[in-house]
UniProtKB/TrEMBL annotation:
<feature type="signal peptide">
    <location>
        <begin position="1"/>
        <end position="24"/>
    </location>
</feature>
<dbReference type="Pfam" id="PF13927">
    <property type="entry name" value="Ig_3"/>
</dbReference>
<keyword id="KW-0812">Transmembrane</keyword>
<feature type="transmembrane region" description="Helical">
    <location>
        <begin position="261"/>
        <end position="288"/>
    </location>
</feature>
<dbReference type="GO" id="GO:0016020">
    <property type="term" value="C:membrane"/>
</dbReference>
<protein>
    <recommendedName>
        <fullName>Ig-like domain-containing protein</fullName>
    </recommendedName>
</protein>
<dbReference type="InterPro" id="IPR003599">
    <property type="entry name" value="Ig_sub"/>
</dbReference>
<keyword id="KW-0732">Signal</keyword>
<feature type="transmembrane region" description="Helical">
    <location>
        <begin position="339"/>
        <end position="362"/>
    </location>
</feature>
<keyword id="KW-0325">Glycoprotein</keyword>
<dbReference type="InterPro" id="IPR036179">
    <property type="entry name" value="Ig-like_dom_sf"/>
</dbReference>
<dbReference type="InterPro" id="IPR007110">
    <property type="entry name" value="Ig-like_dom"/>
</dbReference>
<keyword id="KW-1133">Transmembrane helix</keyword>
<feature type="transmembrane region" description="Helical">
    <location>
        <begin position="294"/>
        <end position="318"/>
    </location>
</feature>
<feature type="transmembrane region" description="Helical">
    <location>
        <begin position="227"/>
        <end position="249"/>
    </location>
</feature>
<dbReference type="InterPro" id="IPR015631">
    <property type="entry name" value="CD2/SLAM_rcpt"/>
</dbReference>
<feature type="domain" description="Ig-like">
    <location>
        <begin position="130"/>
        <end position="216"/>
    </location>
</feature>
Length: 399
């Protein structure tokens, strides 16, 4: 009979889909589950509604393959490899005793009693190893960044991982997330409140183990910590070099350092400035590598490069070629003209180099002054507007 109504056609399709689901539910309800430990023994019971047993057959279904364990018929028992000496049948009720279990024994076991009646029972057996003590460690826990706390079991299959912080279950309102395997705890945005003792409980059907770890959240990442250390060393070098410049200047004319000692002091001071600039430039490069390029770091980097070149050349020249400078002055003094005056050259060069810095400072101060005047004028206008509003009088007072 043809179905002309769409509703009737839809009902037939739904009925066809529900039949396999119903069959699967019946199989699931009929399937018994057992869990055992590796090396132990397990007793798999036969059907309970059998009063008289004529024949019994036990099979092991592992994946797509089927292996017959034993066959019993008319008091004749046949046990197949590799279950000899490991499988024992209780003929009175059809139960199977398996000894010295291995992980490969996991799977579905089916017993068929009395072939004519076809009474059967299926049992799902899961053979597990006890879980070992879990290893717990953290990775990349830096403030305002994502981090992970990992829990790993080296031996045994862990079916469930349970996480706690300071002995309490993880609060649901915090930024915690468990991965699909439940072995990695993700902290989306690590913060100070995430510090504490974390415990991981790994368990399966036969055993459980728990371990804990004291987790700390670093304020700076390891690269930024290196930047801080390098910057501190650079400041120390700069401070010592500054002392080497200020100390000779503050001396009196009679006690001022001269001659060979002055040459070595100048070379040492320039060397300190050069090393300080190199360290500061390295810190800036590492910072930009971690945080990204910034004009506030690139401009000082260019200036530090200039300082490195100048101080290196001065230190090298003063240290290794002082005689060349003396010969240059003595050679110039042998002429009938006066010694070359480089004052104008030095002043003009310094002025050209200082112009960009002066322009930046002037632009900054001009902009700040304009913003302050604008804010003050807006405040004056608001104040005058408030004063111009009529004052409402209380009717009780006017009466």
């Amino acid at each position: 009979m043809l179905l002309h109504h769409p509703v009737e056609l839809l009902g037939v399709l739904l009925a066809g889909l529900l039949v396999p689901l119903k069959q699967a539910a019946e199989v699931e309800s009929a399937l018994q589950r057992r869990v055992a430990m590796v090396g132990s023994s397990v007793l798999l019971a036969g059907p309970h509604n059998i009063t008289l047993i004529h024949s019994v057959q036990w099979e092991h279904l592992n994946g797509t393959a089927s292996h017959t364990i034993l066959q019993y018929e008319r008091h004749n028992l046949t046990i197949h490899m590799p279950y000899i000496a490991r499988a024992h049948l209780h003929a009175s009720n059809g139960s199977l005793l398996l000894e010295d279990l291995q992980e490969s024994d996991s799977g579905i076991y089916r017993v068929t009693v009395n072939r004519a009646e076809r009474e059967s029972l299926t049992i799902l057996l899961d053979v597990l190893k006890p879980v070992s003590h879990p290893q717990l460690w953290s990775r990349g826990l830096v403030a305002k960044a994502s981090g992970e706390v990992l829990c790993e079991v080296a031996e045994g299959r862990a079916d469930t991982f349970t996480w706690k912080k300071d002995g309490q279950m993880l609060p649901p309102d915090r930024s915690y997330h468990l991965s699909g395997s439940l072995s990695v705890l993700h902290l989306r945005v690590a913060k100070k409140s995430d510090c504490g003792s974390y415990s991981c409980n790994a368990s399966n059907g036969i055993s459980w183990q728990e371990t804990s770890l004291n987790v700390t959240v670093a304020g700076l990442s390891p690269p930024l910590q290196d930047v801080l250390r390098i910057s501190v060393v650079a400041v120390v070098f700069a401070a010592v070099s500054g002392w080497g410049i200020i100390f000779p200047v503050c001396q009196s004319e009679k006690l001022r350092i001269r001659g060979e000692l002055w040459r070595w002091l100048s070379a040492y001071t320039c060397g300190l400035v050069c090393i300080s600039s190199i360290l500061a430039g390295t810190a800036g490069i590492l910072w930009m590598r971690e945080e990204g390029p910034s004009i506030a770091v690139i401009v000082p980097e260019i200036f530090l490069l200039y300082v490195i070149v100048i101080t290196f050349l001065v230190a090298f020249t003063v240290t290794f070629q002082p005689t060349k400078l003396i010969q240059l002055k003595s050679t110039a003094e042998e002429g009938c003209t006066a010694f070359m005056d480089v004052t104008t050259l030095v002043v003009s060069t310094a002025a050209v180099l200082a112009l960009p810095i002066l322009a930046i400072f002037l632009c900054y101060h001009t902009t700040q002054g304009w913003l302050q005047e604008h804010d003050s004028s807006c405040a004056d206008k608001e104040r005058s507007f408030e004063m111009s509003l009529p004052i409402s009088m209380d009717p009780d007072l006017t009466s």
